[in-house]
Design a protein that fits this description.
Length: about 500
């Protein structure tokens, strides 16, 4: 049985009203996630390929350096979450962070894609490490407070799934728009570069466009949600020692529901990180995509996201979030790896067969829809952990919880790049490879190892999602309890002077 808080203990606390957001607020809030989508697609889809195949650094080394940058993330993310929870200003807890993150993200992003080509590998690796840390830290300064704000906008069980659906829709839209721009314009075939993905000049334009897009998304989100500041929880914070602050952080994070979601996220996002990092290798060398095929493939992926955007809230209103997330992860694993097993068995169309691309697109679209449905549901479950923790500890710690979730996302993207580097090395994949000239046994090893990793991580995610300890009934009971103790806020406060 959860510990009950007394009215005296609850007095400084506020919980957001269970309300439905207006389309304008929902849209502007969700649009901010496009910035992370650009970062994620760039890191996951192009970074390894760029530093390995264009700059010429060994794939395993690139993956290792990106993963090492996670050591810094391990401190940055919880620090940002904790500090944003305790920030007090006329602009509330979250918005100072949103506004302040835009410029550092833009500058770091441009620098990341402009290494000193022609210099020693050591200098290039140092550049990669420093710029990767800068970008990831700046993204944390925006994303952690922004994700925490999702909890504060509404306490309604189903509305939170809807909020997260918008976040994932715009996050994927941002990432896919940059993919389309890259494939169609920046990294399109050019004189001397029949495979535009290997053109160093294209990445400079890609970097500038991405930086501008991310800056725009962040500012639109901050400005569009600014008027909601009076409605957002702003609990009083007592001054206390650093040691006490650290004890509070540890106590807050010792939460079973949170731990289960972190394990599920660790598996799901590691799988996603591998998918992102290896996608161009599979598309270019296994399926032999060319030209506009990349555009059509990107549209297919976004269609899958669109399906998840509709399905996740609808199914969530009628069923169990943990069960839905588990089933969605399992379906994503089966459908996402099916083309590789069929190819290895000799039952999949060969390159040049008119049925190849439709079938690849079909499986990719459905697996994306299932995978994103699982991500949306998992994020909504994380939002529900906030009130469960509040009842237990007497503290609202949105920023801290979502810092943990965001660290897992970033951590696993780095791990995904690292694992992909190992997969390429294990398969014997050559540097500066040419599509059509990679030996078939190498491609077979690549798809077999990749498919096994994909299946393993997504099925493990399903296992942990299914063990999330509470659902709708428990959440609504907690809201009633908080309302009875006087912490459930129903009217907007006046903004601070």
């Amino acid at each position: 049985m959860n510990a009950r808080i007394t009215p005296a203990e609850a007095m400084p606390l506020t919980t957001p009203p269970a309300r439905r957001l207006s389309p304008g607020v929902m849209g502007s809030y969700g649009f901010g996630a496009a910035a992370y989508g650009v970062k994620d697609s760039g890191f996951g889809t192009f970074l390894l390929l760029f530093y390995n195949q264009v700059v010429g650094v060994p794939a395993a080394t690139v993956g290792f350096v990106v993963m090492i940058a996670l050591i810094v993330d391990a401190f940055v993310d919880p620090t940002v979450g904790f500090l944003s929870d305790r920030t007090r200003s006329r602009w509330g807890r979250r918005h100072p962070w949103l506004y302040g993150a835009a410029l550092p993200i833009m500058l770091g992003w441009v620098a990341l894609w402009n290494p000193p080509i022609g210099q020693s590998h050591m200098l290039i690796l140092v550049w990669l490490f420093v710029t990767a840390v800068l970008v990831r830290s700046a993204v944390s300064a925006y994303e952690v407070p922004s994700q925490a704000m999702a909890v504060e906008l509404s306490a309604d069980y189903d509305e939170r799934t809807r909020i997260m659906s918008y976040r994932y829709l715009f996050g994927w839209l941002g990432g896919l728009l940059m993919l389309v721009a890259a494939y169609v314009y920046f990294l399109a075939p050019a004189p001397g570069y029949p495979n535009g993905l290997l053109n160093p000049a294209g990445y400079r334009g890609f970097a500038i466009a991405g930086a501008l897009f991310m800056g725009l998304a962040i500012l639109v989100s901050a400005i569009g949600t600014h008027r909601e500041i009076p409605r957002l929880p702003n609990p009083k914070i007592e001054k206390q020692s650093l040691a006490r602050n650290l004890r509070d952080m540890v106590e807050t994070l010792k939460n079973k529901a949170f731990a289960v979601l972190m394990l599920a996220g660790l598996c799901a996002y590691t799988g996603q990180g591998i998918i992102y990092a290896i996608s161009n290798y599979v598309a270019s060398f296994v399926w032999r995509f060319e030209g506009m095929t990349f555009l059509y493939y990107s549209i297919t992926l976004f269609a899958g996201v669109g399906v998840a955007f509709v399905v996740a809230p609808a199914v969530g209103r009628r069923g169990s979030k943990p069960r839905m997330a588990a089933w969605a992860s399992t379906i994503a694993a089966v459908l996402g790896t099916a083309p590789f097993w069929l190819r290895l068995a000799g039952w999949f169309p060969a390159v040049g067969d008119p049925w190849l691309l439709p079938l690849v697109f079909f499986f990719a679209g459905l697996s994306t829809a299932a995978g994103v449905t699982a991500y949306i549901t998992g994020a909504s479950m994380l939002a529900d952990v906030v009130e469960e923790s509040e009842v237990r500890t007497g503290r609202r710690s949105e920023g801290l919880f979502f810092a943990g979730g965001f660290f897992i996302q970033k951590c696993t993207s780095g791990v995904g790049i690292f694992v992909t580097g190992l997969i390429l090395a294990a398969a014997g994949f050559p540097a500066k490879a040419v599509p059509g000239q990679v030996p078939v046994p190498v491609l077979d090893r690549l798809t077999a190892i990749y498919g096994a990793c994909y299946l393993l991580f997504y099925c493990l995610a399903a296992f942990f999602y299914a063990r999330f300890p509470f659902g709708r009934g428990e959440h609504e009971a907690r809201l009633a309890q908080l309302a009875a103790t006087g912490v459930l806020e129903s009217e907007p406060r006046q903004p601070a002077a």
